[in-house]
Amino acid sequence: MKGLLSLIPTPPPLKARSLVYDLKMRLDWGDPALTIIDVRDRTDFNISHITGAIPMPMNELVERALSSLELMRDIYVYGHTDEDSAAAATKLRLAGYLNVSELKGGLPAWKAFGYPVDTVVTATVF
Question: Which residues form the Rhodanese domain (predicted)?
Fold first, then answer.
């Protein structure tokens, strides 16, 4: 049985800073057991975001994360800039999250590779 366990592939370990390729590879794994957090404001999130990302604006980040995510959860976080992503990751780590990765390049890098994005359609009143 021990020999069989070594044949079962496992996803690469989470890094403190990840390239969009790292996240895409993890998503392609099939059962990623991760959460993608977009810390930009709701308007920007609605315009476009990484498919599967959840909105948690910076000013609500820790409160919302603590109410919905386990401290051991693998989390990828991105904002407008790498500095925003780093600040969000720091907040989450200080709140007790152990597996947080800053997504380098954020949404622009994700889009540059042609990876999937979603848009939240809102009704327009004429």
Answer: 30-119
| Rounded Cα gap, residues 23 and 18, in angstroms | 7
DSSP string, 56-81: --GGGHHHHHHHHS-TT-EEEEE-SS
- The CA distance from 53 to 45, in Å, is 9
- Beta strands 117-118 and 49-50 are antiparallel
Please list, in sequence order, all residues whose beta carbon lies within 8 angstroms of the beta carbon of residue 91, skipping any fewer than 6 positions away.
Answer: 58, 61, 62
**Average pLDDT of adjacent 10-residue blocks, the chain of 126 residues:** 57 86 88 90 95 96 97 96 97 97 96 93 61
Structure tokens at 95: 């709140």
